[in-house]
Amino acid sequence: MTPEALVRDHTVYSCVMGSRAFGLATDDSDTDRRGVFLAPTPLYWRFEKPPTHVEGPADEQFSWELERFCELALRANPNILECLHSPLVEHIDDTGRELLALRHAFLSRQAHETFVRYAVGQRRKLDADVRRHGAPRWKHAMHLLRLLASCRDLLRTGRLVIDVGDDRESLLAIKRGEVRWAEVESWMTRLVDEADDAAATSPLPAQADRARVEDFLIRTRRASAG
User: Fold this and answer.
1) Are strands 61-65 and 32-37 parallel, antiparallel or unpaired?
2) Domain residue extents for the chain
3) I need a labelling partner for 173 at 20 to 30 A (CA). Which of 49, 65, 89, 223 fits?
4) What's the CA gap between 181 and 192, in Å, rounded?
5) Contact (Cβ atoms closer than 8 angstroms) between residue 188 and residue 144
6) Percentage helix, strand, coil, to 5, in the chain?
7) Which CATH architecture has domain 3-106+209-225?
8) E strands along the chain, which residues?
9) Measured between alpha carbons, how far is 159 from 70 in angstroms, rounded to an integer?
10) Can you give the pLDDT of all 226 residues of the chain as single tens digits?
């Protein structure tokens, strides 16, 4: 079975991500699609295993096999967790609905480390752009602020909301380069500090509910084998 056929015939969940899901879309925004497919269990009985992810077949489309997706979500991977909370679902079946019903089982205080660590890496790239070119990539700066705000709010409330809401216009002004870099830096620093403070009193559990997710995966694999 080709990778394209796995995505076409065995997707359990797919959504739109990127600016359209974040409430930051403009007329020139791409449509980024992300999905989860369930490779039929008999494919694992062969020497050559199914792929853990597939790029395409459409432009701006990327999908993960269910097990890989769950592994990354249990590690609090920011991109994966956000996929589970997209407001723009394009396709979902019974397995996908059960996956979404589990999305709070993936959330834990580990998100503080993974989100902020990812943000630190992105911040270094922005600082390098400023040193080399005198200005950052403003679109990347906008998305970094969005990520940090969603991390802070997740730690405060126990809920992951990816739409930027009332911050839309302020963030789009940054994307257009209308805000001084020093102000953007100050906002980033404040968000990191607020996330650190929120982590200390977060209602989230220390670890994700791995056992519950594993039970779902085993049941799904068994059903697929039948």
Assistant:
1) parallel
2) 3-106+209-225, 110-200
3) 89
4) 17
5) yes
6) 60, 10, 30
7) 2-Layer Sandwich (3.30)
8) 11-17, 32-37, 53-55, 61-65, 89-92
9) 18
10) 899 999 999 999 999 999 999 999 998 889 999 999 999 999 999 999 999 999 999 989 999 999 999 999 999 999 999 999 999 999 999 999 999 999 999 999 999 999 999 999 999 999 999 999 999 999 999 999 999 999 999 999 999 999 999 999 999 999 999 999 999 999 999 999 999 999 999 999 999 999 999 999 999 999 999 7
Q: How far is it, in rounded angstroms, from Cα 55 to Cα 76?
A: 22
Q: Are 102 and 213 in contact (CB under 8 A)?
A: yes
Contact 69, 95 (CB under 8 A): no
| pTM of the predicted protein model | 0.93
Residue type, 108: S
Any idea which residue has 């500090």 for tokens? 193
